[in-house]
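User: I've been trying to design a sequence by hand for this structure and keep getting stuck. Would you show me what you'd pick, starting by listing the structure so we're on the same page?

Assistant: Good idea, let's start from the same input. This is the structure you sent:
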């Protein structure tokens, strides 16, 4: 929030994250995880079934380099 903006999914000041008038971190964390699952889960398991193969799990490497 130091840059003056936030994403809709990351608004801890919303009333739905309060319990007895106090911020409830557990509610916030649970809701964020649910939103991420809903946004990014595959449409079907068959779409990612090839990535579930045991032989592929240790072969995925990602290297990212960027200039700030």
């Amino acid at each position: 929030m130091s840059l003056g903006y936030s994403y809709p999914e990351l608004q801890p000041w919303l009333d739905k994250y309060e319990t007895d008038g106090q911020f409830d971190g557990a509610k916030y964390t649970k809701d964020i995880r649910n939103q991420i699952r809903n946004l990014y889960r595959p449409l079907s398991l068959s779409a990612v079934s090839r990535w579930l193969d045991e032989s592929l799990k240790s072969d995925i490497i990602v290297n990212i380099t960027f200039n700030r």
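That's my pick for every position. To get oriented when you compare it with your attempt: The first strand starts at residue 18 and ends at 19. The helical segments are 25-40.
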